[in-house]
Amino acid sequence: MFKKKLHGTKTCQLLKAAFAAECFAEHRFKIFARIAQDEGLYAIEAALNELAYSQQMHAESHFKMLQESEEVYFGFEIGNTIDNLKTALVAEGLEVNECSELIKTARDEGLEVVAERIEEISIDEMAHIHRLDSLINQII
Asked: Which of 22, 56, 74 is the last residue of a domain?
């Protein structure tokens, strides 16, 4: 559609940043909604979840434009399902590495509680890797 026009442009770089911002906003609203729910503020929870959904739709729009441009996003290509699963697998591996660094740094700084929580997250990330690998094997 607009592959040659978008690739490598300032617009493309801003689109990548906008995608990331929309993703952050979506999750921020979801967290705020859970807090409102915990406080019994169900109308506020519903409104925040609606806002989260709107942010999700914005992110998906940005993502589709990046996908149509065949742009590489954060070093990962956007492709068909098998390609995307492989990308997700690599990304989860990077997250495990980030967790390892964060655990070490937290321990070095005497923040054992943070290190322990990140270890739990790291275990989840490893489970994600196994799940993604299984999904890839189902397709192949």
From this structure: 74
